[in-house]
């Protein structure tokens, strides 16, 4: 699974990379994000009502109600920040978003942890001319959070799809890794059929990735990660 990533690409560069017109940029004066946790806001590229790509912030994780076992009253909702690739087309929780609301989630690296007390953190990125070239996770979004209080009911949220781990991620996280899309697949992911989109939910080639940071101390790693 993925529960921490970074997105430090400048807004103008994101617009160019993801083919977003300046008038469809809703980020404003966005700052680089070296540590994005569940329930944090982060950039997302989605299709607007007229079919154009737009860049805007969404909170990470589809939200579901949660009740206190002691009091029976609502408490902070759960955030579903990852969706399994083998569930998105069949699960009632994910199916509608997969069919109708696929999106791109800009990133520059992601962290997986190995071991405990203390864990060792591994930051993964793509190889390229830059230290950490920008890329996009396969994501989904939604604009209604059923069953939540009015202040969160219409919150825009996104989630990241995961698939089986490739050879570089597997020694750290044996089972899962986020789906990284190749640029030539962005349009198919966002506008293609469900079958075409499902075909893209595969491990990214390990030879095109690298570990860019390894060590303890999540906060320090996050601050220094890009």
From TrEMBL:
Among SUPFAM superfamilies, the record links this protein to: BB1717-like
Q: Which UniProt keywords apply?
A: Covalent protein-DNA linkage, DNA damage, DNA-binding, Hydrolase, Lyase, Protease
Task: Please tell me whether the keyword Lyase is annotated for this protein.
Answer: yes
Any idea of its EC number?
Answer: 3.4.-.-
Q: Which GO terms describe its molecular function?
A: lyase activity; peptidase activity; single-stranded DNA binding
Q: Which residues cross the membrane?
A: none
The source's superkingdom equals Bacteria
InterPro entries recorded for this chain? Answer: SRAP, SRAP-like
Listed under GO biological process in this entry are: protein-DNA covalent cross-linking repair; proteolysis
Family membership, please give it: Belongs to the SOS response-associated peptidase family.
Q: What is this protein called?
A: Abasic site processing protein
